Amino acid sequence: SSIMSLSEAEVQSARGAWEKIYVDAEDNGTTVLVRMFTEHPDTKSYFTHFKGMDSAEEMKQSDQVRGHGKKVFSAINNMVQHLDNSEAFLGIVTPLGKKHATQLKIDPKNFRIICDIILQLMEEKFGGDCKASFEKVTNEICTHLNSIYKEEGW
């Protein structure tokens, strides 16, 4: 059963859209993070080892940035695989949300920023249809993360 507001057709087209960008998970994940750090420099403060990096070039080359970019994309990939199984989906989103809320104390607005940059990159690389079919998924992810944050007292 699905807690998602996505129909089976929407799930399929979202997966198709995601696959296109996930093929180059490390490069695209890195691009997304570098954009976030460049356009929203305050987000860098959460990452002690990225703090001193100012140039986008330097960030792109960083193993830590690349590693985290890949990690972000892997986590989303896991969610995308379970869009039609609410229990499994929540089993991925919940611990992730809790960790970011309690241990890492990341402002939840950053999830929306990352999702928006992913959508932007999808549109640039694969066009508006690709972006449109993934938009509902990012809304779903952010909605669930935000409710986990509320439970944790944010």
UniProtKB/TrEMBL annotation:
Its UniProt entry gives the catalysed reaction(s) as:
Fe(II)-heme b-[protein] + nitric oxide + O2 = Fe(III)-heme b-[protein] + nitrate; Fe(III)-heme b-[protein] + nitric oxide + H2O = Fe(II)-heme b-[protein] + nitrite + 2 H(+); 2 superoxide + 2 H(+) = H2O2 + O2; H2O2 + AH2 = A + 2 H2O
Which positions fall inside the Globin domain?
A: 5-150
User: Which domain of life, per UniProt?
Assistant: Eukaryota
- Any one Pfam family here would be Globin
Report the locations given in the UniProt record: Cytoplasm, Sarcoplasm
Give the family this protein belongs to, as stated in its UniProt record.
Belongs to the globin family.
Tell me the protein's name: Myoglobin
